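Journal club prep — side note

Before the paper discussion, L.F. wants everyone to see what a predicted structure for a comparable chain looks like in token form. Sequence:
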Amino acid sequence: MHSSGLWRPIRRRDYVISARPWRAALYLLTSVPLGAATLLTLVLLAVAGSALAVVLVGLPLLLVLVLSGIPLASLERRRLRLVDSTPLADPHREPPGTGLAAWLRTRLQERSTWRELGYALLFATVLWPLEALAVGAMLLVCGGLMATPAVMAAGGDGEAKVLKLWIADSYPEAFAVLAAGVLLLPVLAYPLGALAAGRAVLTRQLLSVPESGADSRLQELDRSRMRLVDAFEAERRRIERDLHDGAQQRLVALSMTLGLARLEGPAEPLGGLLAKAQGEADVALVEIRELIRGIHPQVLTDRGLPAAVEDIADRSPIPVDVRLDVPGRLLEAVESGVYFAVSEALANVAKHSGATRASVRGGVAFGRLAVEVEDDGQGGARLAADGGEAGAADGGEAGAADGGAGGSTGTVGGARVGTGLQGVADRLSVLGGSLLLSSPPGGPTVFRLEVPCPPARSRT
């Protein structure tokens, strides 16, 4: 246990001559003004906020009161280093977006914020008065004993009252009392150090949010899942690069060699065979280019998600309007997952919807990327999950979100509308995203996806 490390130095022989007693005293002494200031702040915020709440002016003050434990806890984690060399980590997570609203939403949803508020109330009402009493008693006893000769000299009557318990009526007795105070000072350093250690243990327990075993396993699972996604994307990139730089270039060279052979060879029958071989090489070259684009499009790597979606729209057999507002670059796994989801949605629109026009629109808000693919087709599309239908035929929604299974097939009027939606839903689920479909009979059909989008760490 970590707490045993705080008690162990007190049992060492060199404790008194080390810096630890002074650090313990400083830790307890600084609690007094800090606790008094905390009490005053909490009382003022509570009174002013409650009095002004009827005119709505006090609501921000009450919100500040709720959040007041955050700066105090931050200061306490730093002050804890006086007696505890092990840092106490900040349990707060980064907001999913920028701005005050995102920060407030995140903090108010965290358990740590409310634990820190409870700590602030306990510190302001109970802890610092007890510490002031303990440190004050030690200073009063030791200081009173050591000040006896000075009190006797200042009084001028040759006597001094020692701690209001007895009267020292001679200087030898006064200096003996002073010596007793000096000897008592290191003795009292031990209970003072124990008090500081106990206070540090309490602070650590209250300001660190304990994680259960299940929570730890879930967090590790989430981290390993993202590592697998990153590794999968890196492998896709490698395959795409090998095909682009290897097999495709060899096919290009083969086609050029066959073309030169046709120019130099006889017309028949070798010329016909060379022409047929060159045609087959050209077909293979077209197919491998499509395969490369399906594995990982180069435009997505070079120019990002909006440009890649524009490329899909340009190749669509029906007109597609694109309005995608994505600031900067996102994680490669997010860009790739959203790209293939939009590609699958537009493929289904072209094959099964009977639409004359489609649109892709989306943007980033509150740390999540939302993209909608809408068409003016006949509607009635459904997402089927695990052999059953979770329908949107009547305008409802069916989806796969946060680990659920999405639709593996879809139907429009009983016809299949694609078999890639299961993969899309699974891919978005791995990224912590969701897939929804709204398609009432007669249309329109709206294919909506949402996925968390932290900024890219590196695009090298």
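L.F.'s comment for the group: DSSP finds 14 helices and twelve strands in the chain. Keep this in mind when we get to the figures.
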